[in-house]
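Quick one:
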Amino acid sequence: MVLMNNLYKIFKKQHGVGLVETIFAIGIAVVVMTSLVSLALVSLRTSQKNTSLLRQSKLASEELERIRTYKLTRDWKDFVDDMRNCTGTSYCYIAPDLVLHIDLVPPYGESLEAFGDANIYRYFKAYDPAAVSYPVTSDSALIIDPGTTPDLLRVSVTVETHVGDDVVSAHTHTDISNWTR
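Output:
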């Protein structure tokens, strides 16, 4: 009985301590939840960006395959002459029906399906790596010398995703040579 009286006296003196502890616990929970929400948002944003870059890389690889197929439909000299139009400030793409398109004004290149407020553009440039001085400082330096038919062309494909004022790009390139079948 003495023990019960002592416990009763101790608990009777602690009025309001439960409320302070509850408020303190809620404060800690709010800080933890805010951190978790921030982490989730950063993870989601990173995931979306990585998905976009992966998609851009796939679209760039598809364009390289179209260029290789386009090359197989012509002889080497005609292919180089066509690619001469895709140097410097020209933006080229090959449509699914293997027709070469050359754009000189925005929007550059092939406009692909958009999602949300994003627009996707794909284009390539071709140049003779032997005729370029490195490091390349501008697109106008990417040339194929007139009157020559080099045995090797470098094709650089760019896929851009425009979201508002932000532009995210993926690039890939390959060398295409004058090999015989």
